[in-house]
Amino acid sequence: MTSPPPFDAVHAQRELERLEGGVTEVTWESPTGKAYRLAVPPTVYPPREDTDALARTLARQRLKPGSSFLEIGCGSGAITVLGASKGWVTTACDIHPLAVSATRHNVSCHGLSARVVEGGPGPSLDGQRSQWGGDGMYDLVAWNMPYLPAPEPDEPHLGPLEEASLIDTDSDGLYRRFLSMLSRGALLHADGVAFVVLSSLFHGSTACEQAWAFGLAACVVESVEFDDHERLLVVKIWRPFSGAMMSAVEVVESTNQVLLHDTSCIGTSLRAEHQTAGRGQRGRGWESMEGAFLGSWLVGDQGHFSHGPIDQVRIGASLVRLCSLLAGGEIGDRLCLKWPNDLYVRDDEHTPWKKAGGVLFEGLTRGRTSRFVLGIGLNLGFLDHPLFSSLARAGVHFTPAQLHPMLHALVASHFQSNDGNLVEPSSHGELEAAVDHGVSCLGPLFYRGLRQDVVGLEKTGALHLEGGDLVDDPNTLNWSNVQLGIDRL
User: Fold this and answer.
1) Fewer CB within 10 Å, N- or C-terminus of the chain?
2) Positive or negative, the Cα torsion across 29, 30, 31, 32?
3) What is the per-residue pLDDT for 133?
4) Contact by Cβ (8 Å): 414, 425
């Protein structure tokens, strides 16, 4: 049955009836084990599973008392109460006036202090930033975002106050608007971090890729799955490698070699228009195609880093994800990962798969010190070549200069730690799916002359074959759907 037009007299009456229901009280237990009584007015979002997931994430943060904290969309105030209880200088905002009143009340009732104001990110009519977030910068920002898309005009609507809590009515999308703010240097200190809660049915399915496209590092740090397979994801977002240089030169022998031998800090990146002595796997030459992205990152030093096949898989799978987003949608029939570290492309189902990019880790040890670099090469311009192709064939139309900050963010998402632990923006299941998709596109594969099916991906990144063999060297495999000689890159 089609509902009346949104927000007519029927909706207004229903909203008034809900408001007459009175305030309810709930008990919310924080991750610290303390129980808080919270007053929740009608139409205000109460603490739920997503609140708990965000609270667990924030409780793990190593912020000192006096650190600055902003909660956007505070609802009934559970997260604001948690921040204030940890001694953080807390600001909270919500576009729902009853949520603002509830949060102020709940903070005060527990003897805590926080600045709570009405407003939030959105079009200018929803309030400028100075209104809801002040003009300062924060060490930590949290937002349990509305994660339902706006309904079509002929679909059932919630009342206006309910929609304020649950539905993203921003024409640009609140998540993209938030990423845009962070990428422009707003809200967060250089070393600050933000956490957002998103649904896998909405922006959550490509949350990290969208952040990378804005030049922001991102990874999923916690998730809650429901019986209908929807997942609520807590996504961590930060500015990549604060303080590290991201440079470009016209010509260099090898970007990997430059970073291996200089004294740059972790996260330093170098991009070159041309390489005269680029290298691929096992010391093979890495041919420079005109207009290709050729760049390297210092990802480890002082012996604190070692890499294996799983790191190549992580970067390769993430590159496929980013390219799919940049191409405007699903391109799985034209782009895939060849285990462990190569990107392959084809024009359509009638043309052969050709290599369009690759990943290379290299290390250098001198005495007790070691340095490790990650090199990424991606063909971008249209190529007419018997062996190689480019991402342009898959719909990715970006220049090396445009891609550099995106890849900088992607690399940081894997290898930068700002809370004491390396982060992993891909679950092992996602990595297995990327490898399986590549096998289905480029296989069947052969090992020691025998056709083999892949039955799993080990935690180390090695392939587990049906015959029981574990393979960690890609040079021992032959892929039946790959042109002879294509692996020379």
Assistant:
1) N
2) negative
3) 83
4) yes
